[in-house]
Amino acid sequence: MKQVFSKGGLFILLISFYACTKVISVNLNDAAPQIVVEGIITDEPGPYQVQISKTVNFSASNIFPPVTGATVRITDNIGAVTDLLTETSPGIYTTHIIHGIPGHTYRLDINTGSQTYTATSTMPLPVALDSITFQHTARVSKVEIRTVPNFQDPRNIKNYYSFTQTVNGRRLKNTFVFDDRLSDGRYINVALRTDSSYLNIGDTVLLKMNCIDKAAYDYFFSFEQISGNNNFQSASPSNPVSNLSNNALGYFAAYTTQSKIAIAR
Description:
Blueprint: E1 2-5, E2 35-42, E3 49-54, E4 71-76, E5 81-84, E6 86-89, E7 92-94, E8 105-111, E9 116-122, E10 129-138, E11 143-152, E12 160-167, E13 170-179, E14 187-188, E15 204-212, H1 214-227, E16 249-263
């Protein structure tokens, strides 16, 4: 089970630090702004949204300026449906007619006037989330409670999953990704790692399980590698792997989604 910590769905590692006796001076304000895209389409009823913004310099406030006035389209490559999105608020583009269908491939096209960006994503077939239970682990000071999704992984099909949790109405920042490389065809019930302070007896937990494609998995997995959440840290600056063209940051993902609610016991 992979664990990813996100802020606003996107993390950009500006510089990695490592032990060295030489002092290196780095100008973090010279990087040219890059476009950042966060777009999804799911098997739930729309509309769906694509958010477009730009990066800022290291010393600037953590507010990403929206990209306005872009032309944004999502096309169902199987259903031959193209949806021209409307900018419903600055940098937020919303669909009208397209529907997410498992097995279909979707193409995102963005034209900002000076640049074009594209991405494709295939929506996997859904895998049923049977139930959620809770794992109790005794620690020195308290008992740690973790959420456990329970589901049957299909045999001989490469599957990728992501999980998010909302506890007592508050969305936790952790996103977990999991692939069936070592568990193909097995019944899965792996506890989701999180800060033990988040879950207590009586908490209401909403667990969302998404079946994602490899491109989305690679994005979130590389996000983890870069941020060092698995005790690995890149020796050089980098960004998460993106399925967007033209050096854009972020991702476009088509996925199936389902959720269940349970009381932590």
